[in-house]
Amino acid sequence: MYALKLELKVNNCERTRMARHAGYARFCYNLARTLYLGVMDIKVRRTRKIALIKKTFTNFIKKEPEYQWTKTLSSRVDQNAFIAFNSALERFFKDRGGFSNFKRKKSGNSFTVDISNGSVFLIAGNRIKIPTMGTFRLKETIRYNCCSQTFTISRTADKWYVSFTIKADKIPPLYHSVSAPTGRDLGVSTFATLSDGTVYQLPYSLKTAKIKLRKLQYRNRNKQLGNRKLGIKSSKNTQKFYRKLTKKHADIAQRQRHFLQKTTTEISQQYAHIRIEDLNICGMLANHKLAAAVVDSGFYQFRRFLTYKSPFYGTIVELVDRWYPSSKTCSRCSHLQPMPLQARVFVCEACGNNCNQDLNAAINLASVSNDRVRVRRPELTPDQEKEPTPYADTVRKF
After folding, report:
1. Range 52-57 contact pairs with CB under 8 angstroms and sequence separation of 24 or more
2. Scanning 168, 302, 346, 349, which has its CA 20 to 30 A from the CA of 244?
3. What's the pTM value of the predicted model, to 2 decimals?
């Protein structure tokens, strides 16, 4: 099972309708949280409380005169909002997170719709039919016919996306050009260095985009930002600035994600056995001189992408012990010596080996003993994934 996320090509009318449904989902989620806190002392199981909240909303609240506007929107939005709140409660009671907070408009707009009986048949092309919402154009075409049941529509900056899961498995390739263990060392000056000498650099467009972001923030440093507590409203130019700032941040995140996806796919297709170092990302972020470079590089995202793609491409991803001195060990004679962080060339004091520091560390990661590595598994394995509602005998077409 894997998911697709495609950008929608919407007009102003469709954009307004999506924003209304997103606000409706946010309203239902916050209402469920308020009602749950009101019945927390009642000795009833959690699932029973959620069922009572659904009945209260459907039979009483929606019939009130001030809530007649809810009848003009999709009923699947409020049902999925209650399901999302129940999932948040499950994570809280399993100690996997804190108690859910109220959803805010500035935190992002998203909502989920589904079809309760059967699934939706999606035809390959540049259009998609979403249940209870209608037909929308896509900026990226669907390359094959598929079926899905649940659709999540979200907004990033001024762009709207639709994501849905497909119950199918990718067939991994039977052949990789490199089958021997390959070490991969991450760095600041060089993004990634492999043990065979391959080097990956961050795209220059990412650096120029961050420069433009800094200029935008500097030129608008005197804008009247507003303060709700003090009753100060933000100016019209400030609101325009915030929209430009959101677009710029989304553009930088998209550039970084595209580079990481492309790089991890290329590595997974070529190398069958990959060894990476278990970096202490939190400790690296504590160093203010390296924090910005670490965040821009996306070290953890790189490891996560490489890990979850391992079943798709039939690769083995292993983590090397965090305390293994890969940068201080000579790759030729295994001599251990201190190595300052600012030095870029490793010169062995025993055998005189002269090698790039990142390449030397990558070679050591590839040749490390098996007792100092562990296999990295995806965060969600197929047996841990929640199975969707089984397909009906007849697939409904919207």
Report:
1. 53/82, 54/79, 54/82, 57/28, 57/31, 57/32, 57/82
2. 302
3. 0.82
Query: Based on the domain organization, do 110 and 36 belong to the same domain?
Result: yes
The amino acid occupying position 129 is K
- 319: CB partners within 8 A, 6+ apart: 275, 276, 277, 278, 373, 374, 375, 376
Residues 148, 191 share a domain: no
Q: Is there a domain that residue 28 lies in?
A: yes
Q: Give CA 6 to chain center in angstroms.
A: 14
> Where among 166, 201, 224 does a domain terminate?
166
Is residue 380 in some structural domain? no
Which residues partner with 337 through β-bridges?
Answer: none
Number of structural domains (the chain) is: 2
Distance of CA 235 to the CA centre of its chain: 33
Q: Which two tokens stand for residue 130?
A: 């979403």
Per-residue pLDDT of the chain (398 residues; tens, 9 = 90+): 778 999 999 999 999 999 999 999 999 999 999 998 887 666 667 778 888 889 999 999 999 999 999 999 999 999 999 999 999 999 998 888 889 899 988 877 899 999 888 888 899 999 999 999 999 999 999 988 889 999 999 999 889 999 999 887 777 777 888 888 999 898 888 899 999 999 999 999 999 999 999 999 999 888 888 888 888 888 888 889 989 999 999 999 999 999 999 999 999 999 999 999 888 888 888 888 888 888 888 998 999 999 989 888 889 999 998 888 888 999 889 889 988 878 889 998 888 888 888 999 999 999 888 888 887 666 554 434 444 333 333 333 33
C-beta separation of 328 from 360 below 8 A = no
314 and 188 share one domain: yes
Domain that holds residue 371: 178-375
> Do 269 and 185 lie in a common domain?
yes
In this structure, the answer to whether residues 298 and 259 fall within a common structural domain is: yes
> Cα separation of 47 and 27, whole Å?
20
Q: Tell me which long-range contacts 253-258 makes (C-beta under 8 A, separation of at least 24).
A: 255/203, 255/205, 255/206, 255/209, 256/206, 256/296, 256/298, 256/301, 257/298, 257/301
| 87: number of Cβ within 10 Å | 12
Examine residue 185 and state whether it is found in any structural domain, yes or no. yes
- Looking at the fold, whether 183 and 286 belong to one and the same domain comes out as yes
CA dihedral 262, 263, 264, 270 (to 10 degrees): 110
- The pair of structure tokens assigned to 226 is 């507003």
Query: What's the rounded Cα separation, in Å, for the pair 178 and 175?
Result: 9
